[in-house]
Write a structure and sequence with these properties.
heterodimer, A: 587 residues, mainly beta, Methanol Dehydrogenase, Chain A, five-stranded mixed sheet, 5% helix, globular, B: 195 residues, alpha+beta, Cytochrome Bc1 Complex, Chain D, domain 2, SH3 type barrels, 3 domains, five-stranded antiparallel sheet, two-stranded antiparallel ribbon, 7 strands
């Protein structure tokens, strides 16, 4: 038996770490034993037989050299994530957040044979997690705040940690979801619904430290996945419907100490505060509730900022309301603002800019440039220069009835009469936006930007509201056009121009992300439970699976033992698919 | 009654989505909605004679498509407690223009109108007309006029026509006089059974 053989043999590779904790050692041993039982399915290519690829730093182990898994993700591995396509290191897969998988074993020719490998039942919803996969172990978050580590080959759980949330924990204006973790070195980081940042031992789930980020009684909460950079954990905050003053934080990864805080709304005396009337900046919202991106060369963080508060009544906050509905570039060492670009000045439709900024290095206008592409909730697609913040391109990618277009600086030319009103104003898109937090994806092979698109109008209402600490602070509401009056699609845009190349119609507006792969595929999901693969060049559907729950999450891909998998959460479960793999343990 | 005021008097509450309402509000509103229609309709409020309406219901063979107290067909909605669920005006409209107001499916993952009339033309030459039972991006489930279920992949469809404003149920505007309609409405309004 492989187990006995392995247990008797001492590790020969000096790079391997001896696992210090006995209990964890057993877990690692069990994982390796299952791996060693593998034999290749005849139609799969390439198929290493009996080899172990719980590899360290991407190194492949020769047959028989089973080693335990020293969980270690130093910063260098995160920077070079693209060199390890078998892993999905972070919420957005890499610092550039293209959510493109370079894996191509699952491709247009064989995707029709994709089938479930295992299902992990969480049993609670909403499940909006993006799994992180490192060296064969998957980390998923569960609502309202829990983390599970799972053997990514078999779906068997290794450990689970659950936050003790106080009774009456507040989540004002959003569902009590959690979207994922960050990993750095041997520690997993997660934000809690009651606004703590918690560091967990990656091997056991034991708590290393716990830092209070902000007061949940005032409506602060964390649902986003933290972002790990060099020695720091970057965390944003939710609470934009409770009149918080938004911020972006950096914490010392080792200790949990706050290193800097960037306020998304200027304080009295600071530049930009003049874009708010009176004291309105104090309750101006500007939440940072979705994981941003990072350019290690420029050492800049790129983060989307949420709507101003109150959402639908802008009377008390005359002006542009900086830096709401903007993307900001923040120095990762100091938290200082380098530049900003505001998509929707003086927003009154709840069009947060909390979408994923996608960082693309490409030729543009005759020279190589560092670009930032973003499909905004306001129905416009933007390309910016991410060194300077210069506006390069902006064009509608979905039905919108609020702007005649953008001026030469990218500022919207707003159509009068499209603001919320007492009697109601019908506007496209709805407050959920033409897209939202779920992921777009960019393929460097097709140079297309793929975006799940919602074509849904809403009647927006305006009402009076006074700020009351820890209470909803919205000033109106909306009634969305639903059911058969709303439509959805996955759209492929020319990255440089935003021009529509193809679209794949969905039965209803989606709440699920997409992922492009080097296999020529774009994976996506629907509210009706379909998980599907499209041809990345044409939008033709090549495979689909009915999951039985609404897909409200983003897909990822990873590889173990030379086999590529695709994972996505749907309903209250996490599904993992592989080529023709009826059972991973006995393939 | 606090729960009533939550809905009717507070304009802000009336304009909020459910996700914006606090837990206490949700309980109050649920209690209020549950209380709706619990009181008996007095005979004086009925637009006609319910007994006459019951006789018309039987003679028009409405039970071929509707269940009352367990008896009848199921092409259309169950009517056992329709008097609790729907008001007089809606019942009248449902008889005169049945496709005008279709109910929305309360299940988020099956969003859309219930009883939507669809016509499907398949690649192999079939034409299926019936109500849409469910639909996703790749498939549609249809219950046809002969009460047969069809599971159809959209890849196999030439055209899918969603006939908004229409219904499999005929309008009785031209076949039943005003007195008859009033009697039918009165009868339906008295159907308050079930649990």
């Amino acid at each position: 038996m492989k187990i006995a053989h392995w247990a008797a043999s001492a590790p020969r590779d000096r790079r391997r770490r001896r696992v210090r904790l006995g209990g964890v050692y057993v877990v690692a041993l069990a994982l390796v034993a299952m791996t060693s039982a593998a034999v290749g399915a005849p139609f799969l290519d390439p198929e290493p037989t009996g080899s172990i690829t719980y590899a360290i730093g991407g190194a492949q182990q020769a047959e028989g050299e089973q080693v335990p898994v020293p969980i270690s993700v130093p910063y260098d591995r995160l920077v070079n994530a693209v060199a390890e396509p078998q892993n999905w290191f972070s919420y957005n897969g890499s610092y550039a957040s293209t959510r493109f998988s370079p894996l191509d074993q699952i491709n247009r020719d064989n995707v029709a044979t994709l089938r479930p490998t295992w299902v992990y039942q969480i049993g609670r919803s909403p499940v909006e997690t993006t799994p992180v996969v490192v060296d064969g172990i998957m980390y998923v978050t569960e609502p309202p705040t829990a983390v599970s580590a799972i053997d990514a080959r078999t779906g068997r759980r290794l450990w689970r940690w659950q936050a003790r949330l106080p009774p009456g924990v507040k989540s004002i204006g959003f569902p009590a979801a959690n979207r994922g973790i960050a990993i750095l070195d041997d520690t997993v980081y997660v934000g809690t619904l009651d606004a703590y940042l918690v560091a967990l031992d990656a091997k056991s789930g034991a708590v290393r430290w716990r830092t209070h980020v902000a007061d949940n009684d005032l409506g602060h909460a964390i649902t986003m996945a933290p972002l790990a950079i060099d020695g720091k954990i970057i965390v944003g905050i939710s609470g934009g419907e409770a009149g918080i003053r938004g911020f972006l934080d950096a914490y010392d990864a080792a200790t949990g100490e706050l290193l800097w805080r960037f306020w998304t709304i200027p304080d009295a005396g600071e530049p930009g505060v003049e874009t708010w009337g009176g004291d309105s900046y104090k309750t101006g919202a500007g939440a940072t509730w979705l994981t941003g991106s990072y350019d290690p060369e420029l050492n800049l963080l790129y983060w989307g900022i949420g709507n101003p508060g109150p959402d639908w009544n802008g009377d008390a906050r005359p002006g542009d309301n900086l830096y709401t509905c903007s993307v900001v570039a923040v120095d990762a060492d100091t938290g200082e603002l380098r530049w900003y670009f505001q998509f929707t000045p003086h927003d009154t439709h709840d069009w947060d800019a909390n979408q994923i900024p996608v960082l693309i290095d490409a030729e543009f206008g005759g020279r190589q440039r560092k670009l930032l592409a973003l499909a905004n909730r306001n129905a416009f697609y933007y390309v910016l220069d991410r060194e300077s913040g210069e506006f390069l391109v902006g064009t509608p990618y979905s039905r919108q009835t609020w702007a005649e277009g953008l001026d030469e600086n990218g500022r919207p030319i707003v159509i009068p009469g499209t603001e919320p009103s007492e009697e109601g104003t019908l506007v496209w898109p709805s407050l959920q936006g033409a897209t939202n937090w779920f992921s777009p994806s960019y393929s460097p092979l097709t140079e297309l930007f793929y975006v799940p698109t919602r074509e849904m109008g809403a009647v927006y209402y305006k009402a009076d509201v006074d700020y009351e600490a820890g209470q909803p602070f919205m000033g109106g509401g909306e009634q969305a056009l639903r059911g058969d009056q709303a439509e959805g699609s996955v759209r492929a845009l020319d990255m440089r121009t935003g021009e529509l190349r193809w679209e794949f119609d969905l039965k209803s507006p989606p709440w699920a992300g997409v992922m492009a792969t080097a296999g020529g595929l774009v994976f996506g999901g629907s509210d009706e439970g379909n998980f599907f693969a499209l041809n990345d060049l044409t939008g033709e559907s090549l495979w689909e699976f009915q999951t039985g729950g609404s897909v409200h999450a983003n897909p990822i891909s990873y590889m173990i033992d030379g086999r590529q998998y695709v994972a996505v959460a749907s309903g209250g479960s996490l599904f993992v698919f592989g080529l023709g793999a009826a059972s991973a343990a006995r393939r | 009654m606090r729960q009533r005021s939550s809905i009717l008097s507070d304009q802000r509450a009336a304009k909020r989505g459910l996700w914006q309402i606090t837990g206490d509000d949700v309980r109050d509103i649920a209690a209020y909605v549950w209380s709706l229609g619990r009181s008996d309709v007095s005979v004086a409020e009925l637009p006609g004679d319910p007994d006459e309406g019951a006789a018309l219901y039987a003679s028009m063979d409405c039970s071929s498509c509707h269940i009352i107290d367990g008896a009848g067909g199921t092409m259309g909605p169950v009517l056992t407690n329709i008097g609790r669920l729907r008001g007089i005006d809606h019942l009248r409209e449902a008889l005169l223009d049945p496709g005008a107001t279709l109910p929305e499916n309360p299940v988020a993952s099956a969003a859309g109108s219930i009883y939507l009339l669809v016509s499907v033309q398949t690649r192999d030459g079939r034409r299926i007309t019936g109500t849409r039972v469910n639909e996703d991006t790749f498939t549609i489930q249809v219950r046809d006029e002969e009460d047969m279920f069809h599971s159809i992949r959209k890849d196999d469809i030439v055209s899918l026509q969603k006939r908004f404003g229409e219904s499999l149920m005929p309008s009785y505007a031209d076949t039943v006089n005003e007195g008859g309609i009033n009697a039918l409405v009165a009868y339906l309004a008295t159907l308050r059974g079930g649990s």
